[in-house]
Amino acid sequence: MKAVVLAGGFATRLRPLSCTRPKILFPIINKPLLQWTFERLAKNNVNEAIMAVFYQTEAYIKHHRVPRCGVHVTFSHDPLRKPLGTAGSIKKAEKRIGHESPFLVLNGDVFADADYTEIFKLHEKKKGVATIALHEVSDPSRYGVAKLAGDKRITGFIEKPPRGTAPTNLINAGVYVLSPEIFDYIPEGRAVSIEREVFPRLAEEKVLYGYLYDGLWVDIGKPEDYLKVNKIMLNQAEASSRFRSRRNAEIKKNVAFGKSVSIGKKSIIGPYTVLGPNVTVGDDVRIQDSVVLPAAVISDHAIVEGSVIGESVFIGKRVHISERCIIGDHAHIRDNVSLAKGTSICPGNEVTETVLSSDCS
User: Fold this and answer.
1) Which domain holds residue 211?
2) Which of 251, 257, 268, 303 has the greatest number of CB atoms lying within 10 Å of its CB?
3) Rounded CA separation 346/34 (Å)
4) Are 290 and 197 found together in one domain?
């Protein structure tokens, strides 16, 4: 079986972290999202993945040497200055996909423990053109919403309805099985949205079906969602203990540490904290509800709450980083600085004074 992984988005809501890495390489308890995807594909006997990406994203993937878990990986490229959209990217990969059998499509920024084989079974049974995994959420306004009939047929599909107007709470979970006939519905040579253009037409023609999925599902499109999925996985994973600690450091569950983490005396780490490889934590530091990417340095008496700290960031002494802060890679926060809630620091920037508003610095 083949899968197409759609990973051509710009992840604007995850800036400034996405300025220096594509969303599919964001680590979830120290494992890139893309590695989780490859593992799930292999588990479901999908042996080939076609990555629909920009050339720059391919370079990032190869540089990070993401384990492929036995899945054969090839790349299909969108033009950087002319993104093709979700359906356009599928059309661009048509020759690689072929017309022999149905294929899987995954939104690369979704973390879901779905059983792909069950979706294939339903697709083959219904003999439609497309089958979408559907997931129930409390607020469907951010997603594509489906109306589902008793025979699993989708009778209507609305992309991102205004809050309070959605006909149901069943949303597009970003996992599809498509038959080769799908290529007849996608115009060539222009950007095409599968959600806004293709799925509504398939629903009108009564060849669109839905597979109800009630397991783990998180769209990591926003920083709070990214922290949420790390918290969920920390609850499911065994705590890691690969770190060097001086006396009196306190580790509160649940946490995960990469290799060669160092923690100073009287520091309190956790709950719900991920420290990437080679992170250095000084004395009397407090970190909770946060993700710290590799090689960051957090100096003595600093406090980090509910935030994401980028790779190779330096945080000085007595720094206070409040909730929902996002610190871009290689930023430098000077001693005694405090950051207001929701502050974003762009990659490589130096912050020398306290930030009282949440504007990007």
Assistant:
1) 2-224
2) 257
3) 24
4) no
What is the average per-residue pLDDT within 298-304? 97
Q: Which residue has the tokens 């974003």?
A: 344
**Domain CATH code at residue 134:** 3.90.550.10
163 with 289, same domain? no
The number of helix segments (H) and strand segments (E) in the chain equals 7, 32
Domain boundary among 194, 224, 254: 224
User: Which of the 8 DSSP states describes residue 240?
Assistant: P
Cα angle, residue 228 at apex, residues 348 and 294 outer, rounded to 5°: 35
- The β-bridge partners of 251 are 269
- Point out which residues pair with 205 in neighbouring strands: none
Give mean pLDDT, residues 83-88.
Answer: 88
This prediction has a pTM of 0.86
Whether residues 261 and 202 share a domain: the answer is no
**Could you report the per-residue pLDDT of 135-172, keeping only the tens digit for each?**
988 888 888 888 888 889 999 888 888 887 878 888 88
Whether the predicted pLDDT of 81 surpasses 90: no
Residue 292 has, within 13 A of its CA and on its CB side, a CA count of 34
**Tokens representing residue 295 in the block:** 């090689």
Peptide bond before 230: cis, by omega within 30 degrees of 0? no
Q: Can you tell me the distance from the alpha carbon of 261 to that of 259, in angstroms, rounded to the nearest whole number?
A: 6
Q: Please indicate, yes or no, whether residues 162 and 251 belong to a single structural domain of this protein.
A: no
Query: Is 142 found in the same domain as 169?
Result: yes
Q: Are residues 134 and 276 in the same domain?
A: no
Catalytic positions, written as ranges:
160
Token output for 288: 């909770």
Question: How does pLDDT run across 179-234, given as a tens digit for each residue?
Answer: 999 999 999 888 899 988 999 999 999 999 999 988 888 888 788 889 999 999 99
Q: Please indicate whether residue 312 or residue 174 has the higher confidence score (pLDDT).
A: 312
